[in-house]
């Protein structure tokens, strides 16, 4: 099953069905999980004409807020929910229930013309601390490194900050972008830039190995690739079996769901 090209061109906050009588599933959160949610939505509504699904990509933090405030059916998040978010949800009568829908590696992306092939975690951290500032220091051509990062509301930022930066502050001169797509776009047009993106967002850019390990499904599953994380859909409690929300958040466990996850460049949790 090939995904239709329309999935990849859907806007960041798109109404995928408009029937006023349809049951509604509202997805809010991560731009990383967004392509999965959009693919699932298109597939799901084709199978269930009485269900409307909307998908917004405002960041994992906003997905958590929507879950806490009970304003979404599904919070899409590229990180685990924080203790303070879980507590706030509980205080509002919401039980944050995680569903791991895929695995993802955070790839280090550079322009295709960049001759550098590998960075150690230490070198990567030093770039983002502002200690390494020129590609020539890394065996590349002379050129000031343009550092691209994500906003702090991003789950991708949270993971990078934890696994690479060890929560040390990213250099102030770093350019902040709002999504994986924006980071990729910046790399494609900027010869000396570096960014971190989900492995599903590498079209048109070059991914560096990290500590000599390429971000592949096998290395991400095994833990050999150092910058990886699960991708989540959170619901308010475990949805009742057979309900539209249950069928939506368990779609990744089907063969079609696995194929959609794979076609989007992520790593499925099933293996048919």
Please tell me about this protein's structure.
With 272 residues, the protein is α/β, with parallel strands linked by helices. Helices cover 31% and strands 24% of the residues. Strands 1, 2, 3, 4, 5, 6, 7, 8, 9, 10 and 11 form an eleven-stranded mixed beta sheet that branches. Helix 2 links the parallel strand 2 and strand 3 (51-56). Helix 3 (60-68) runs parallel beside helix 4. The longest helix is centred in the N-terminal third of the chain and has 14 residues, at 34-47. The two termini are 14 Å apart. Residues 5-19 have low confidence and may be disordered.
Question: Which helices and strands, and how do they pair?
Answer:
Elements: H1 6-9, E1 13-15, E2 23-29, H2 34-47, E3 51-56, H3 60-68, E4 74-77, H4 83-91, E5 96-110, E6 118-119, H5 121-129, E7 146-150, H6 155-163, E8 175-177, H7 180-189, E9 193-198, E10 206-210, H8 217-222, E11 228-236, H9 244-249, H10 255-263
Helix pairs in contact: 3-4
């Amino acid at each position: 099953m090939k995904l239709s090209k329309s999935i990849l061109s859907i806007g960041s906050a798109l109404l995928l069905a408009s029937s006023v009588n349809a049951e509604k599933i509202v997805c809010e959160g991560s731009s990383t999980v967004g392509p999965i949610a959009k693919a699932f939505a298109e597939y799901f509504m084709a199978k269930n004409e009485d269900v409307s699904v909307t998908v917004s990509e405002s960041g994992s933090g906003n997905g958590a807020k929507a879950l806490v405030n009970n304003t979404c059916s599904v919070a899409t998040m590229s990180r685990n929910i924080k203790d303070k978010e879980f507590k706030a949800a509980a205080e509002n009568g919401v039980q944050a229930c995680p569903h791991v829908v895929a695995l993802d590696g955070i790839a280090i992306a550079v322009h295709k013309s960049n001759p550098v092939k590998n960075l150690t975690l230490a070198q990567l951290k030093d770039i983002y601390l502002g200690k390494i500032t020129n590609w020539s220091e890394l065996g590349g051509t002379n050129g000031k490194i343009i550092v691209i990062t994500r906003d702090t509301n991003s789950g991708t930022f949270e993971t990078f900050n934890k696994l690479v930066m060890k929560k040390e502050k990213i250099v102030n001169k770093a350019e902040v972008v709002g999504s994986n797509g924006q980071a990729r776009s910046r790399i494609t047009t900027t010869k000396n830039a570096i960014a971190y993106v989900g492995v599903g967002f590498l079209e048109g850019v070059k991914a560096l190995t990290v500590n000599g390990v390429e971000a592949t499904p096998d290395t991400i599953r095994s833990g050999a690739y150092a910058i990886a994380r699960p991708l989540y859909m959170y619901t308010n409690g475990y949805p009742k079996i057979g309900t539209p929300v249950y069928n939506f958040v368990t779609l990744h466990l089907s063969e079609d769901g696995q194929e959609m996850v794979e076609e989007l460049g992520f790593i499925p949790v099933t293996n048919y």
